[in-house]
Design a protein that fits this description.
Elements: H1 7-15, H2 19-31, E1 54-60, E2 66-72, H3 75-86, H4 93-98, H5 101-105, H6 110-113, H7 116-119, H8 122-136
Antiparallel strand pairs: 1-2
Helix pairs in contact: 2-3
């Protein structure tokens, strides 16, 4: 299992980059995601409302923490979901519910960096993660 990069370290790196390099960083984050088996890319794991296809599959670690597998058919969208997961990956459901993911991502100012088509699905990704955490808390 891969360990998600620390969100603060990502932000520190992100802030020093120009727009093109920020875009590349997001793509690299997506490439670094743990592979999601094709068998898990189903209608049940599809995040609705994204311009690209995005799948998120929650798993529960033996100690109860949540680990998410995710993928997208678009490189930048895969990077966005990797960034979202960096704030909650391998946390307890109660900790995920206590995390304001939107506020955590706000300093990245994705709506200014990317087109609205690329960012429109972020609230749905966050909602799915929070719903999963609430169900398993």
């Amino acid at each position: 299992m891969s360990t998600a990069p620390e969100i603060a370290a990502l932000l520190e790196e992100y802030e020093f980059l120009d727009a093109d390099d920020r875009y590349r960083l997001l793509i690299d984050l997506g490439r670094a995601l743990e592979p999601m088996p094709d068998a898990l890319k189903t209608d049940a794991t599809l995040v609705r409302g994204c311009s690209a296809s995005v799948w998120v599959y929650p798993t529960r670690l033996p100690d109860g923490r949540l680990h998410f597998l995710a993928d997208s058919n678009a490189a930048i969208t895969k990077g966005i979901i990797a960034l979202v997961l960096a704030s909650v990956q391998d946390h307890a459901p109660a900790d995920i519910l206590a995390t304001d993911i939107t506020a955590t991502l706000a300093p990245f100012d994705l709506s200014r960096q990317l087109s609205s088509n690329r960012t429109q699905g972020i609230p749905n990704m966050i909602a799915l993660i929070r719903e999963t955490a609430a169900r398993l808390a």
